[in-house]
Amino acid sequence: MRFTVVLSALALSACATQPPALSQSAKTHLYAPMPTSEAQRVWECAGVSNVIEGQKFVLKLQGRPENWGGEIWATRERGKRLHCSQAEMDAPDMGNFSSPPKSPRPR
């Protein structure tokens, strides 16, 4: 009985970490080159929280499920891979998500 419970828990935890079917833009964002400096990492982390909220709002307006195309999952996963703190993600966008960028990418 105990073995079954542990096995079930492991199976469920694996399902929770599996990525959804990703759109091409989500794949491009997720697999972009990693930053080479701390300044680049902070620049990429800034504004992530606002982008996720914006993506949710746009998908709701379009009548699509919240994680359609995997954009939100890919944005969160990129933040995890960059080791962004919540404060860094809550900071105003420094240009990564702006068009045109507010500030150039740091070197």
From TrEMBL:
Indicate yes or no for the key word Signal.
Answer: yes
Q: Where is this region: Disordered?
A: 84-107
Q: Which residues form the signal peptide?
A: 1-16
Highest taxon in the source lineage: Bacteria
What UniProt keywords apply to this chain's record, in alphabetical order? Signal
Q: What is this protein called?
A: Lipoprotein
**Which organism is this protein's natural source?**
Pseudomonas nabeulensis
Provide the taxonomic classification.
Bacteria, Pseudomonadati, Pseudomonadota, Gammaproteobacteria, Pseudomonadales
